[in-house]
Design goal:
about 300 residues, alpha/beta, 8-stranded parallel beta barrel, 10 helices
Length: about 300
């Protein structure tokens, strides 16, 4: 070993470090619902996030004209959101995956049939992914995939949308599928879709759901729910979804010191552990949550 050139040793240890860093957990963040949370480039430049969900496409399906809502960031109708195209590309150049998030807690969205799901998939491909359209709301940047944060409307045909979107993974470019179900299992809206095994990352919302979240220092319900999720669905990685500040949700906030010392060590025992999802960038800025936990995720 003493005869190995120093440069070779340095390269070897750099490679090992890179592999370990890439194989560890990461933080997913929701961005887009508060104009005071900074832009996409600034979000990605922090170095704290591996995944950014651009939220939300609030209207689609059943023949409706799809509608993007990025709160105070830009006006899709005036085409001012196209300025984020270069910022999406900047994020991707840093190795960060950028998704378009469908749904959310407000809006008007649902899928009326399998054919409707196919039409929505085609729209998403042409306007946000690798297809072409004259009306791409976020410009020419090709997003990495689609996030399903389905909380309203019909529970039907989300599995059809996932299957149609997955068919666009071709030519060496993958369309990532992610989802943000509620922690009661199975999720009322996404249960059938998650059973397809097509989802790469699932960030389960362990908040606003007292039966399966952390509360009053009690981790039992959370650990029980986590085990159910990690053993019951086929997904590459499962994430612990949390509010980034006490004010970010009605319940389920976990103080960072408790998360890092009492919860993450147990979660990491699962080979499906992927990291932590936070709602949202605005609240993370206010509370400094990701700064407190990133070294432990």
């Amino acid at each position: 070993m003493n005869n190995v050139p120093r440069l070779v040793l340095s390269s070897f240890f750099f490679f090992i470090s890179a592999v370990r860093a890439d194989g560890g957990g990461g933080i997913a963040i929701y961005w887009g619902q508060n104009g005071n949370e900074g832009n996409l480039s600034a979000t990605c430049a922090t170095g704290r996030y591996k995944y950014v969900n651009v939220a939300f496409l609030v209207k689609f399906g059943n023949g409706q004209t799809p509608e993007l809502n990025l709160a105070g960031h830009c006006n899709p109708a005036a085409r001012t959101c196209t300025r984020f195209s270069s910022q999406i590309i900047d994020c991707q150049s840093r190795g960060i995956k950028v998704m378009l998030s469908l749904g959310g807690g407000i809006g008007n969205y649902s899928l009326g049939s399998k054919a409707d799901a196919e039409a929505v998939a085609e729209y998403l491909w042409d306007n946000y992914l690798g297809g072409t359209s004259s009306s791409r709301p976020l410009g020419d940047a090709v997003l990495d995939g689609i996030d399903f944060d389905i909380e309203l409307g019909s529970t039907q045909h989300w599995e059809d949308l996932a299957r149609f979107l997955s068919k666009y993974s071709r030519g060496g470019r993958k369309v990532y599928l992610t989802a943000a179900p509620q922690c009661p299992f199975p999720d009322r809206f996404m249960g059938t879709a998650l059973n397809t095994g097509l989802f790469d990352y699932v960030w389960v919302q362990f908040y606003n759901n007292p039966p399966c979240q952390f509360s009053s220092g009690n981790t039992v319900n959370l650990f029980k729910s986590w085990k159910t999720w990690t053993t019951s669905i086929r997904a590459c990685k499962i994430f612990l979804g949390l509010p980034a500040a006490p004010e970010a949700a009605g319940s389920g906030y976990i103080p960072p010191e408790i998360l890092t010392s009492q919860i993450l060590p147990t979660l990491k025992e699962s080979p499906k552990y992927g990291g932590v999802m936070l709602w949202s960038k605005f609240w993370d800025d206010r509370n400094g949550y990701s700064v407190s936990i990133v070294a432990s995720v």
